């Protein structure tokens, strides 16, 4: 018998269908927590607009009878040039939370970047068996942070992704107006069992209060060097937009960068991620791998990012919408749609694979 979740997933023909379906089932404060940005939300809109103003110049008279979306990310094979972006608290939208996402990512053959603020312990997620990266926030207790990094390594994670753009959480007005607080059954399973994220604040977001209490605002290049020496895993810095920072990261031996403005959830008015990618890729000239997140909503968007120099993209909100609307089946369908759209766009652009996509010209 076909379940309601399966029907919802099967009926979706683009990622926007899942956003609408999720909006219909989520409580307004949780929907706002996922969808919202900081300040006036200029940057989330700009992320999307940057894709819409990036046009591809397709090639013709090429044999595209066999197109493949296979890719290599951080030195390992993936079925698509994408990974699940680190998003906190998947159990806000689905009882199984990150476990359902992990199973769907494994089935799709793509890595899952698990957040420090995952609502399921990292060991349970890696036990699913797919490729897992661990996103690390630098805590006020540096020793504890290094212990968390080692714990992720021991659990079988294949990379560490240090987020560098959150000295504290941006002013997310939707959460402040909603006095957003985590439900009692949802917690940051990797770092605590409760705390301020569950205490309704006076005129603020409980999640913002929790991160201000937990995260260090003193993260520096010295810290990056300390982490580099501590782990054998590939090290990725997430949240780099400036050319100067990207060049210094490459010189420091970082393996990859995620060109990211945190989905418009940190500095409102920050440059769109895609525009930053267009500047950083030629400046770095292959010295470290570039990934991108922020605003990816279709396979054609993935192709645009590849053409501008990315090895792949991270997809965040669409995965959460799929999980909210239809659980694991919804996330699987998100990946199916992205694969179908990317495969079609590759062929129509005259590219038989993602390597050829990186030679496409763009008009912006």
Automatic annotation (TrEMBL):
<feature type="binding site">
    <location>
        <begin position="293"/>
        <end position="297"/>
    </location>
    <ligand>
        <name>FMN</name>
    </ligand>
</feature>
<feature type="binding site">
    <location>
        <position position="262"/>
    </location>
    <ligand>
        <name>glyoxylate</name>
    </ligand>
</feature>
<keyword id="KW-0560">Oxidoreductase</keyword>
<dbReference type="Pfam" id="PF01070">
    <property type="entry name" value="FMN_dh"/>
</dbReference>
<feature type="binding site">
    <location>
        <begin position="316"/>
        <end position="317"/>
    </location>
    <ligand>
        <name>FMN</name>
    </ligand>
</feature>
<keyword id="KW-0288">FMN</keyword>
<feature type="binding site">
    <location>
        <position position="265"/>
    </location>
    <ligand>
        <name>glyoxylate</name>
    </ligand>
</feature>
<feature type="binding site">
    <location>
        <position position="238"/>
    </location>
    <ligand>
        <name>FMN</name>
    </ligand>
</feature>
<feature type="domain" description="FMN hydroxy acid dehydrogenase">
    <location>
        <begin position="7"/>
        <end position="364"/>
    </location>
</feature>
<feature type="binding site">
    <location>
        <position position="163"/>
    </location>
    <ligand>
        <name>FMN</name>
    </ligand>
</feature>
<feature type="binding site">
    <location>
        <position position="260"/>
    </location>
    <ligand>
        <name>glyoxylate</name>
    </ligand>
</feature>
<dbReference type="InterPro" id="IPR000262">
    <property type="entry name" value="FMN-dep_DH"/>
</dbReference>
<feature type="active site" description="Proton acceptor">
    <location>
        <position position="262"/>
    </location>
</feature>
<feature type="binding site">
    <location>
        <begin position="86"/>
        <end position="88"/>
    </location>
    <ligand>
        <name>FMN</name>
    </ligand>
</feature>
<feature type="binding site">
    <location>
        <position position="115"/>
    </location>
    <ligand>
        <name>FMN</name>
    </ligand>
</feature>
<feature type="binding site">
    <location>
        <position position="137"/>
    </location>
    <ligand>
        <name>glyoxylate</name>
    </ligand>
</feature>
<feature type="binding site">
    <location>
        <position position="135"/>
    </location>
    <ligand>
        <name>FMN</name>
    </ligand>
</feature>
<dbReference type="InterPro" id="IPR037396">
    <property type="entry name" value="FMN_HAD"/>
</dbReference>
<dbReference type="GO" id="GO:0016614">
    <property type="term" value="F:oxidoreductase activity, acting on CH-OH group of donors"/>
</dbReference>
<dbReference type="InterPro" id="IPR013785">
    <property type="entry name" value="Aldolase_TIM"/>
</dbReference>
<feature type="binding site">
    <location>
        <position position="172"/>
    </location>
    <ligand>
        <name>glyoxylate</name>
    </ligand>
</feature>
<keyword id="KW-0285">Flavoprotein</keyword>
<dbReference type="GO" id="GO:0010181">
    <property type="term" value="F:FMN binding"/>
</dbReference>
<dbReference type="InterPro" id="IPR008259">
    <property type="entry name" value="FMN_hydac_DH_AS"/>
</dbReference>
<dbReference type="InterPro" id="IPR012133">
    <property type="entry name" value="Alpha-hydoxy_acid_DH_FMN"/>
</dbReference>
<comment type="similarity">
    <text>Belongs to the FMN-dependent alpha-hydroxy acid dehydrogenase family.</text>
</comment>
<protein>
    <submittedName>
        <fullName>4-hydroxymandelate oxidase</fullName>
        <ecNumber>1.1.3.46</ecNumber>
    </submittedName>
</protein>
